[in-house]
């Protein structure tokens, strides 16, 4: 089938590579003046992969939208609303299926990305999310992984999975959009926390972080009307190896933050932790780990003291 990918950063370019590899016709869109796009136009390469010459590159959003029935979007999560506004002004937007491949929440409102996108695009489009573990550098070296696709319409979910499943990525049908989106976004915050532990030479605490991090996010998901078990699936816990124990951007941001080094690439967890703070207040759910990350990043709290404070909270039941 014809597939357009909007966004030509690390992940968007991989998604175009992947869709082409499994047999689809692909157009990859990038912004005018995008250094990523210009580099791909010149060499068809980026730091991670080489794009087949069959993949059409375009700077015209109109062309990219009319090219395909299935449109994959992967840009910085905080830019999604303004980007969706831009899309909503284009013609030929009806009856398209949009697949959001981002892990974030709107920082100012705490809204999920499918909500943000739906508010701007309207209800006529099908909106799905594709999340779960996977690094470009693994996939292009033929190392497989499992991921999850979800939407509010199981027939839409099934159709997307049917088109995208392969022996490189095994997909599962998502059953809980709230859990999948909150889980996917929140795993980046846990990734930052893991990097902070690494920076403090407390890496052995990452097992406890996995146990307690999943627990606090599952409480939030439940309060929001999702299924708390989803958090223990691919979108959150399943992504921990790829985030807490790898060269993940979010983990590197956290470690760099402790060591006084700036990490320049996109670490979505920084904005997401603001959104989670908002949701924690709104739903009256305690998120002690997320809150600690927030205080360290935005209020200059001392990391060692913050960790100690987490340990000194009143003792309670595990579940
Ligand atoms: N396993 C998974 O599911 C993975 C998911 N991700 C997710 O993918 C998303 C993107 O991450 P990543 O590719 O690493 O980030 P990058 O920074 O590499 O790419 C971001 C892209 O967004 C584009 N962009 C930014 N703002 C706008 C805008 N206003 N309008 C249009 N395009 C815009 C940038 O354009 P320009 O080229 O002009 O700079 C760039 O191409 C994140 O949410 C991340 O969490 C990432 C890796 C793996
Ligand atoms: O989502 C990812 C792996 O599944 C990538 O995480 P980072 O954005 O932290 O590198």
Automatic annotation (TrEMBL):
Start and end residues of each Glycerol-3-phosphate dehydrogenase NAD-dependent N-terminal domain: 3-155
Keyword NAD included in the entry's annotation: yes
Reaction catalyzed: sn-glycerol 3-phosphate + NADP(+) = dihydroxyacetone phosphate + NADPH + H(+)
E.C. designation(s): 1.1.1.94
Pfam families (UniProt xref): NAD_Gly3P_dh_C, NAD_Gly3P_dh_N
Keyword field: Lipid biosynthesis, Lipid metabolism, NAD, NADP, Oxidoreductase, Phospholipid biosynthesis, Phospholipid metabolism
Stretches assigned to the Glycerol-3-phosphate dehydrogenase NAD-dependent C-terminal domain: 176-307
Enzyme class at the top of the EC tree: oxidoreductase
Sample GO molecular function, one term: glycerol-3-phosphate dehydrogenase [NAD(P)+] activity
Family statement: Belongs to the NAD-dependent glycerol-3-phosphate dehydrogenase family.
Name of this protein: Glycerol-3-phosphate dehydrogenase
Organism: Heyndrickxia acidicola
């Amino acid at each position: 089938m014809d597939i357009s990918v909007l966004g030509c950063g690390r992940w968007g370019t991989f998604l175009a590579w992947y869709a082409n590899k499994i047999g689809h016709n692909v157009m990859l869109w990038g912004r005018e003046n995008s250094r990523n796009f210009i580099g791909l136009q010149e060499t068809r390469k980026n730091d991670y992969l080489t794009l087949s010459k069959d993949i059409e590159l375009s700077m015209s959003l109109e062309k990219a939208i009319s090219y395909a029935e299935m449109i994959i979007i992967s840009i910085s999560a905080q830019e999604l609303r303004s980007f969706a506004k831009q899309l909503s002004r284009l013609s030929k937007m009806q009856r398209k299926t949009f697949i959001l491949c981002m892990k974030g929440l709107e920082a100012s409102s705490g809204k999920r990305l499918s909500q943000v996108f739906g508010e701007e695009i309207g209800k006529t489009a099908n909106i799905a999310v594709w999340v779960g573990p996977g690094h470009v550098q693994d996939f292009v070296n033929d190392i497989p992984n499992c991921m999850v696709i979800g939407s509010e319409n199981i027939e839409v979910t099934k159709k997307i999975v049917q088109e995208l499943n392969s022996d490189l990525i095994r997909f599962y049908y998502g059953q809980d959009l709230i859990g999948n989106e909150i889980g996917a976004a929140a795993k980046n915050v846990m990734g930052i926390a893991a990097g902070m532990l690494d920076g403090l030479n407390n890496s052995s605490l990452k097992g406890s972080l996995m146990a307690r991090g999943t627990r606090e996010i599952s409480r939030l998901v439940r309060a929001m009307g999702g299924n708390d078990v989803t958090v223990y699936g691919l979108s959150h816990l399943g992504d921990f190896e790829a985030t807490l124990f790898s060269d993940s951007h979010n983990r590197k941001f956290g470690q760099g933050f402790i060591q006084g080094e700036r990490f320049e690439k996109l670490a979505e967890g920084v904005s997401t932790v603001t959104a989670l703070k908002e949701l924690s207040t709104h739903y009256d759910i305690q998120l002690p780990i997320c809150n600690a990350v927030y205080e360290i990043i935005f209020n200059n709290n001392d990391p060692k003291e913050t960790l100690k404070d987490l340990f000194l909270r009143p003792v309670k039941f595990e579940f």
